[in-house]
Fold this sequence. Notes:
Keywords: Signal. The protein is of the alpha/beta class and 421 residues long. The protein has helices at residues 7-23, 34-46, 48-53, 67-86, 98-105, 129-139, 160-169, 192-197, 216-224, 245-253, 276-282, 310-318, 341-348, 353-357, 404-409, 414-417, and strands spanning 26-28, 56-59, 118-122, 147-151, 176-180, 208-213, 231-241, 262-271, 291-299, 325-333, 365-370, 375-380, 396-401.
Amino acid sequence: MPYIVSPISILVLISLLLQFCELYKQLDLRYCSLSACRFLCHQASTMIEWRLGLTVIKLGNRYRCSQMDMFADEVAKSIVGSHFARQGKSCNNAPKNIFRVLMTYNKQIQPIFPQLASLVVFQFISINEDSRDTLLFAIAGGSSMRTFTWNTCSNQTHHSRALFDWLFRCSVNLVSYKLQTPPLENGFELKYEYTIANAYVPHRSLVYLQISILNLNTLYILLHYLPQLKHLDVYISSIIDSINTTDQYLASKLNYPETLRVLNLRNLRIRGSDCSCLEQLMGKFTNTVEEFSLCLTHYCTDEVDVCFNGHRLATLCSRLPRLRSLHFAIHLQFIERRRTQTLTDFAQTFRTPFWLDGPLGRIQVCMTYDQVFNFVQMLSLPYTFSDNILFYTIDLIDVLFNNSEEEKERPNNLSIALRPL
């Protein structure tokens, strides 16, 4: 015998669902099952209570279904359906590319979630342009957006232009922008000629930027268009050639934010006889930077005298009068095997007054040398670069600290010596 639901029960269920929608301002699909994700994607994109009340969306889980595509498809269907409904037509026979046509030619499309303030995306598979543009412009294109986080999977840097277009054209009130690629992947690139041709204007509200980029040129351009930036966390994937004059020319013609307080260079790799490009970059913020973190790899061939060491870092920091906090990890790569005295020579560069009793107080530095791969590491303690590998192998033939008294008391056991790390 079929079960009959009374009209009163249906009204009660609808009322409960409306209350449910009203209570949930945040939609986190990252841990939903396939059926739950499909249901919530449809409800959020079609019910007016969700569309007007949603403030936070979180998508993406490598162990679940393709949530980004599923959510984007439901939003696209909702926009297409609303478009035909306003014209009194049915969308049943609409062409498959109708959403792309509407996005391209219809400038009246409004973001489907006008109150959305935060979008967090963990992308684990590639997406097409339709899904990307739906997420950027139909979902996150409103003036209420304040924080944007997008962690991409591999080989997604071809979306660079769309992601930067959204930043400088749609996110008028955005405060925080995080765009990252997986470790060891190429970062995103922005060219100055493209910004001129597309009439980019400076972003007046963004104060926090965490980003993976391809080269130093992209960093210069971003700084030029972000005059209110206060916190910069950047990963530069390409190796910078110290004799490259293109970066230096571009750097001289652009503007820089006068409000930058925190600078974290999470991955900076320089090849050549000097690190003048780093000194040139830091010279733009001599009167603003208060917290500085540097993870540097210097491919200095076998010219020990020109390697980046404690003297050069102390000179660099001495030009930052407002500096209050310093963390660094310096990796020097050599071609030929060095003598053991080399490590002692580097240790001496960190035993000057600046490091032992300078304006930042006492800074403890650990130095190691690997005899197989021929590299020297110099690390401030405690070690703070959690996303960078700290080499710790049995091939380390020596470990030194910059404090001479601790050197005398240091045990011969390497594992005990490295315990402070």
